[in-house]
Amino acid sequence: MESDSSEKNQLISAPLWAMGLNAIRELETDFGILASGREEIYGCIFGRDSLIAGIKLLKAYHKTKDGYFLSLVKKVLLNLARMQGKAVNIESGEEPGKIIHEFRKDRHEHLTSRPADPWYLYPDNIMRNFDSVDSTPLFLIAVYRYWQASRDEEFLSQIMPNVNSALDWLLRFGDNNSDGFIDYLFHTDRKFGGLRAQSWMDSAESVFHEDGKDTPYPIAPAEVQGYAYLAMRLWAKHFFNIDAGLSAKLTGFADDLKEKFNQKFIIKDNGGLFIASGLDGNCRPMSSARSSMGHLLWAAQTKELDGLQDCILSDEYIPQAIQRLMAPDLFVPQAGIRTLSSNSSHYDPASYHNGSIWPHDTAMAAGGMENFGYWKEAKSIGDSLKSAWEHFGTPIELFVYNQNGFMEYCGPNGQKACAKQAWSAAAILAKF
Predict the structure, then answer these.
(1) What torsion, rounded to 10 degrees, do the Cα atoms 378, 381, 383, 389 define?
(2) Which of 117, 159, 174, 186 has a CA between 20 and 30 Å from the CA of residue 195?
(3) From CA 326, how far away is CA 59, in angstroms rounded?
């Protein structure tokens, strides 16, 4: 563990800071923050993207005390609260208390009018899609962190019904097979299209077993357990002197989740350790090493904010998780952390989620290492991201790094990486 203050307090360069801030300002709308530029494919509101970006912007606020970040995060949260699920609709994935995945008032025809598996369009001609298992716990984390930073009691009173609904969703709808983990499935009676993979790595290519066996629903992604654990811990603390019964219920849920996680997701092999990226519906671990294990360290209580260091990983596994993330099959010192180990049979550096590098994802791992005092490792990752952002000259969505160095991502249908991505820009401003 490294705790050198010069590394802890290192600031990102002024040009990169300006690049991140300008991008966030360009992406701001009346509804919050667009996931990508208005003319790009993801130029709309995404719950997950907005919330991860918002949590990063709160970190920027703590370091700068710039009220702009607080006001923007407040707008994000209030608008997502208005879009929160109210009823069960299997065609869109909506459920009471669930936070939206994707919201499009217009420019949705490429999804809703396609000949095969069109996505569901609501009667008001708005596309609302709720195929995201992680937006709801991320919403709970972001609301708590915003209130913690602002002490805005009027905001808290206004949004508390949405908090209660989100907590209720985790407790009632979050676990489809009653195995104790938060998971997702694609309803067998659904007639409309949508996302079959509903974690942040939401491409079908990202869900597999190395031996080629099927991955039956429901799928429980590792990082989502970490988000849910933190959400339960934070709100259990909030309700401790308000509603002792609810506080105890949330505490019990978190205790059980942590115990089960460290039993089922932690796999020791030949003296080493790896963290499964998820469990399938048979509780079989997906053993491929992925960058998302860094999210487990990011979703943490910290001494600075909470008076203690804690995440879903047991303390004994934290040094090993960091060591695993820094291993050469995942970490590229010139570029960042690969989404998938280069040792995997599915590795492809030019893929969307099976070996490409996503700056926001890499930055979350760096932030997680900072949470537990691993400043040297966090700085190494930060340096890799600086070189990537400087190379592309923009807070890019994702990129390829192979034997030829940096390359732009180009998907099988010619889809390019978005040049301006909100959570990438917010990662710059968080300065790790």
Answers:
(1) -130
(2) 159
(3) 23
Q: Is the pLDDT of residue 1 over 90?
A: no
- pLDDT tens for each residue of 232-281: 999 999 999 999 999 999 999 999 999 999 999 998 876 677 899 999 99
Contacts of 10 (CB under 8 A, 6+ apart): 379, 382
Position 8 scores a pLDDT of 53
pLDDT over 80 (residue 168): yes
Q: Which residues contact 303 (CB under 8 A, 6 or more apart)?
A: 309
Nearest alpha-carbon partner for 393 in 382, 406, 378 = 406
User: What mean pLDDT comes out for the span 339-365?
Assistant: 98
Token pair of 325 as six digits: 């993330």
Instruction: Give the Cα separation of 282 and 291 in Å (integer).
Output: 23
Q: Residue 394's closest CA among 375, 418, 369? A: 418
Whether 75 contacts 45, CB under 8 Å: no
C-alpha dihedral sign at 46, 137, 52, 260: negative
Q: Residue 76 class from Cβ within 10 Å (0-12 exposed, 13-18 middle, 19+ buried)? A: buried
Task: Classify residue 339 by burial, with Cβ atoms within 10 Å: 0-12, 13-18, 19+.
Answer: buried
Q: Where are the beta strands (DSSP E) in 133-243?
A: 220-221
Q: Enumerate residues 6+ apart whose C-beta is below 8 A from 42.
A: 34, 35, 36, 49, 397, 418, 421
Q: Which CATH architecture has domain 5-430?
A: Alpha/alpha barrel (1.50)
Which letter, b or e, does each residue of 82-93 get, where b requires 16 or more Cβ atoms within 10 Å of its Cβ?
A: ebbbeeebbbbb
Written as six digits, the tokens of 336 are 């960042």
Q: Are strands 285-286 and 278-279 parallel, antiparallel or unpaired?
A: antiparallel
Do 145 and 58 touch, CB atoms closer than 8 A?
yes
* β-pair partners for 285: 279
Q: What is the DSSP letter of 402?
A: E
**Residue 277 in tokens:** 């990226």
User: What is the sign of the dihedral through the CA atoms of 208, 213, 217 and 221?
Assistant: negative
